[in-house]
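Supplementary notes for students who missed Thursday's class. We covered one full example, reproduced here. Read the sequence, then the structure, then the short commentary at the end.
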Amino acid sequence: MLRRSIVAFVFLLVLPAVLAQTAAKPADYPANQKKKTVGDCTVSGRVVTAAEGTPLSSARVALIEANQRKHPLVYATTTDKEGHFAIKQVEAGRYEFVAAHIGYLEQRYQARTADEQGAILTLAAGQVVDDAMFRLLRACVITGRVTDDTGEPMEGVNISVLHKPSEEEQEKEGPRVKKLEMTMVSSGQTDDRGEYRVFGLKPGEYFVKAADNNEVSYSEAVEQMDAEARVKQELGSETAPVYYPGALQPDQAQVITLTAGEEVQADFAMQKVRLVEVAGKVVAPDGGPGNRAFVQLRQANMNDWVGELGTTTDGSGEFSIKGVAPGTYYLSAFLRDKDKFHSTRQKIEVGESKIDSIVLVMGGGAIIHGRMRTASGAPLPESRISVTLQAVGQEQATEYSYAQVNKDGAFEVANVADGSFTVATNSLESGWFVRSIHVGSEDIFQDGLQEIGRASCRER
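Structure (token representation):
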């Protein structure tokens, strides 16, 4: 039997990032916006189209200080009629170098394709770079019209453009995308004519999904929704999500293949089907009602936040999600209790009958106590640092837990489900990075946190 109350201790060691090979004290890094200093470097070049080599005027070109998450130095300009640009008085340093233009895919310095990260441009004092060349590829577009079973246009239908990662892409991106059938890469919504337009797409193979649902974010549900959203949530939808050209299941959908600059039309005719209600209650970690918890219903094997359904619980911890089509789903609940964040989920099968007896119980997962410290023993950077555990493995890519780090470096991640996780920090000040992460004597910086809840996560 799995031990779900194991307590693990995680130690994270953070260091200031060093551009040169000399140490810098935390105080040397400004906490607020940097003042742009006048340098003596110049970077110039040209932006043209990838297909014909035609000059692109009014393209935006920028140098963005590398490895600075907050308030990096930015030097930017636009191209002239011949596609030429020049950025002057640039301070020496390391920069991300990027060019963009409306209707084209953004390109980074020396990147051969739109998917590549490109190279960092390193400038020494007084250096002049005068041969930078960007060849921008025209972006793809998917347009279409959505109508109901009477031929009338449908307004406010959510459109998801989904991509199924290839084996090569899965290997490149790592374990977070493995085993996911489809991942949303872009989205849109129909207007009052029932028309939509999703632009800025890279060449490749896509699936398109139309859903007349009331997608609600965590912040909207917890804070405030407008009247129209509340009415739509209460009534639910009468039409099931449809995959182009009209399939109810993703494995029956038709692939849309896009080449550079291509515009394809994908129309939908939504049909009324029998949809059901999924209802139940959330129990808080103390055994009381999970008041104001956010409940989310997500289709299994799919990372499509536009297609998710969500609501909040009432004062008794009860919830109801209407307009759910038959299928396999993950039902998750999230609850913030002061400085702690609780979550739980379970897999459910939705058929043609209402489900009204689901109970989601918060708590019972592993508790991970940890501490973050600097290598020098100096105080931590003054920012709201948090630690996130992201689940890895089949159908787990959207499951996570997190906790805020206290001023003394201590943190506690509560209610962590069984499984393997990557560990990440958020909101570190510019110039700081994580050097090592340990559970006891085990270094998990490379392999992640394995087998939470099992005996291999030793109690300390």
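Commentary. The first strand starts at residue 7 and ends at 16. The two ends are 20 Å apart (CA to CA). If anything here is unclear, bring it to office hours.
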